Amino acid sequence: MDEVLSRLTTQPGVKAAAVYNAYGIKVGGKGEMPDNASLISTIVQEASRMEQEGAAAPVVCIETAHRSFIAKAKDGHTLVMVKGNAGGR
């Protein structure tokens, strides 16, 4: 997991990446993840339940004035990446 997170955080614009379990508890991460990022894992898991059986899990993007959160759930875990927005911090 650490190797994947390290590779993600070296991509252009990626400020942080973390993995959350089904309870929203961070089980690994690189970079500075906002404290409330675990809420995104809940949103992604709920969005996954809306998909038909066998369909690929959705990718959820939440944008704020300063950053974007990109997340996807798979096998009971959620990967969340944080990217800085153009003009943001």
From TrEMBL:
It comes from the Eukaryota. One of its GO terms (cellular component) is Ragulator complex. InterPro entries: LAMTOR5 (IPR024135). It holds the Pfam family LAMTOR5. This is Uncharacterized protein. It comes from Vitrella brassicaformis (strain CCMP3155). The lineage of its organism: Eukaryota, Sar, Alveolata, Colpodellida, Vitrellaceae.
